[in-house]
Amino acid sequence: MASASNSTPGKVAAAILGGGFMAAAFDFFAAMLIYHGTASGVAKAIAKGWYGAAVKTMPPMVEVIGIASHYFILITAAAIFTLASLRLSILRRYAWISGPLFGVGIYIVMHFVIVPLSQAAGGSSPKGLAFVEEFGGHMFVIGLPIALWARAMLGRD
Q1: Which residues fall within 8 angstroms of residue 95, CB to CB, at 6 or more apart?
Q2: 93 Cβ contact partners less than 8 Å away, ≥ 6 residues apart
Q3: pLDDT value at position 99?
Q4: In which residue ranges of the chain is pLDDT below 50?
């Protein structure tokens, strides 16, 4: 395993893309399970951030935009974590802790910054079991895979 001090751009890219793609795929399927929805419905819910309620009457291409947006967001999150872990190796060393905490940060940013500023603003925050599932999902389905990919590709220190 390579340490971050001698990490190659390829390993950094693998950590970012591997963590981002895995987190995005896991989260997409988790959303389908939590909200008992279809892939199309989840994709449209994501695209609603761009287009608002008009997404209901738009052609299927809007689903592609929703999926692409979802993957872009989580690849960006993986890049933030991975690049930060190059400076702060403790993030990789304690990935089982830092990953879920990073997932909490993603949850907070998404629900209190991104969604309110998007065209999907006005949607309700999850309540009850849906909140527990979504919050836990951000910790263990998004944050943890991102942290573990960074550690696997870049080493513990």
Answers
A1: 144, 147, 148, 150, 151
A2: 151, 156, 157
A3: 98
A4: 1-2
